Amino acid sequence: MKIGFLSSHGGSTARAVVAACAAGELDATPALLISNNSASAVMRWAAEIKLPRLHLSGAAYADAAELDAAILKSLRAHQIDTVILSGYMRELGPLTLSAYKQRVLNVHPSLLPKYGGRGMYGDLVHAAVLAAGERVSGATVHQVEAGIDEGPIVAQSRVAVLPDDTVASLRARVQASEGPLMIQALGALSAARETPAC
């Protein structure tokens, strides 16, 4: 399985998946990083580990359809089988979603369907969880469809919300669960693809 990542900032899930592949914990090959942020930490990291990387953003493609086509062309050129969104702060276009139907995974920092959808990302999710007095939060890996944070749930991890939690402390614990959760989901996906249908 050849994996392509789309990421906008730090790419913590991408880093965890690459480390799992390098350690032999996951039978997959990281093959491409696409970022819409040329100055992001994830782009510097990809350069350090010599992971092929591309900057594709609205700066070069003002038209969303052109950006969508460029992303799809790049994924195909690198023979990507599975796409992972690792903090990618843009919506994928219909061309890419159609070509990679059921093969695009996103990790979201809540137990979807709670605290998902437009405007629910990053620290805004954790702030909403704390404001609501939730006792449990977590992370969700789901297949990506046209709606934001929609699509079938693949795996979830639960994280206790502590009485003295802040946005930063809750974020740290949820984020620590995201990489292992994605690795688990990819392992199951890889095994399912290798199992012949009856």
Overall description:
The protein has 198 residues and is an alpha/beta fold. It has a single domain (2-194), classed as Rossmann fold. Helix content is 39%, strand content 21%. The chain contains 6 helices and 7 strands, in the order βαβαβαβαβαββα. The protein has helices at 12-22, 41-49, 64-77, 94-99, 123-131, 167-194, and strands at residues 2-7, 29-35, 53-55, 82-85, 104-108, 136-143, 153-160. It has a 7-stranded mixed β-sheet, with helices on both faces. Strand 1, helix 1 and strand 2 form a beta-alpha-beta unit. Helix 5 crosses helix 6. It is globular. It starts with a strand and ends with a helix. The model has no long low-confidence stretch (mean pLDDT 95).
As a whole number of angstroms, the C-alpha radius of gyration is 16 Å
What's the helical proportion of residues? 25-40%
Per DSSP, what share of the residues sits in E-state strands of 2 or more residues? 15-25%
Which sheet architecture does the biggest sheet show? 7 strands, mixed
Distance between the terminal alpha carbons, to the nearest Å?
A: 22 Å
Average of per-residue pLDDT values: 95
Give the CATH architecture.
Answer: 3-Layer(aba) Sandwich
Q: Helix-strand pattern, N to C?
A: EHEHEHEHEHEEH
Point out poorly predicted stretches.
none
- How many discrete structural domains? 1
Q: Which fold name corresponds to the CATH topology?
A: Rossmann fold
Overall body shape:
globular
CATH superfamily caption: Formyl transferase, N-terminal domain
Catalytic activity: N(1)-(5-phospho-beta-D-ribosyl)glycinamide + (6R)-10-formyltetrahydrofolate = N(2)-formyl-N(1)-(5-phospho-beta-D-ribosyl)glycinamide + (6S)-5,6,7,8-tetrahydrofolate + H(+)
Enzyme class: transferase
Active site: 108
EC number: 2.1.2.2
